[in-house]
Design goal:
PsdUridine_synth_TruA_C, single chain, TruA/RsuA/RluB/E/F_N, 277 residues, tRNA pseudouridine(38-40) synthase activity, Alpha-Beta Plaits, alpha+beta, 10 strands, PsdUridine_synth_TruA_a/b_dom
Length: 277
């Protein structure tokens, strides 16, 4: 078994997970593996991915694992991948390793363009949303809505950079959380609405919270911690050639527009850090 770190610019894809008749990142990976004769059929043996990012969402450290031949380096995989999907590191993992179930933490960042927003209000709203809560009013899911979140916010004018970490996420949770924080920080909703959103009563229609746009969201990190025997000791080896390829791709797309340019800049910075390490 081998695991791979994958970075991608998600703006041209209908999410990570395969869907019929629309381009997805997973389809691009499977097409590349088929072109390399790594597998034939529906999916590689033992295959799993760390997360299912939505349409338009990008990633720096999406992680996939499957039965792979020894010669399949990240650079070899990149030879058949599209330019906006890049493998940049890999690690040997034990049989039975599952990229979804053995992840102990996922970290997302969101680049919120908010030049007139109140940073103190944003931080207070985010603090109230931190910890363990039932987030049923911030997701369309009916179960799995109780989560423990760790959050942080930095100001980088004219942006807020929100970081949200958890063992796992309900659908649209981060984007709806961002939407709520942004509304409070801009004076569009009172701070008391945070408690109202966390209350048991469902909020529907105009009282509910719609998801923020997907493009500024990045899956920034996936952690496989020492507490899990199958994940302990996994050491990802950065493929310098592949990481440089990824750097060039994200440098080329860095400033197409305000928020998406920020996302490309984060992907670029993350790859640069991997190369330096």
């Amino acid at each position: 078994m081998r695991a791979y770190r994958i970075a991608y610019d998600g703006r041209g894809y209908y999410g990570f997970q395969r869907q019929p008749d629309v381009p997805t990142v997973e389809d691009a990976i499977f097409d590349a593996l088929r072109a390399l004769d790594v597998f034939a059929g529906e999916k590689p043996s033992g295959y799993a991915a760390a997360g299912r990012t939505d349409a338009g969402v990008s990633a720096l450290a999406q992680t996939v694992a499957f039965e792979a031949p020894d010669w399949l380096s990240p650079a070899a995989l990149n030879s058949e991948l599209p330019a906006d999907v890049r493998a940049w590191a890999s690690a040997d993992v034990p049989d039975g390793f599952h990229a979804t179930h053995h992840a102990t933490e996922r970290r997302y960042t969101y680049h919120l363009h908010a030049p007139e927003a109140d940073a103190a209000l944003a931080r207070e709203a985010l603090e109230r949303l931190s910890g363990r809560h039932d987030f049923h009013n911030l997701t369309p899911d009916d179960d799995g809505t109780v989560r423990r979140l760790d959050t942080a916010l930095t100001r980088d004018d004219p942006f807020f950079v929100l970081t949200v970490s958890a063992g796992g996420f309900a659908r649209q949770l981060v984007r709806r959380l961002v939407s709520l924080v942004a509304a409070v920080a801009r004076g569009e909703r009172p701070l008391a609405d945070v408690e109202r959103v966390l209350a048991e009563e469902p909020l529907d229609g105009p009282r509910g919270v719609a998801p923020a746009p997907a493009q500024p969201l990045v899956l920034a990190a996936v952690t496989y911690g020492p507490s899990d025997a199958l994940a302990a000791g996994i050491d990802f080896d950065v493929d310098t050639e592949a990481a440089e390829s990824a750097r060039q791709v994200f440098e080329a797309t860095r400033v197409e527009q305000v928020t998406s340019g920020r996302v490309a800049a984060q992907l670029l910075a993350g790859v640069d850090a991997a190369i330096d390490d």
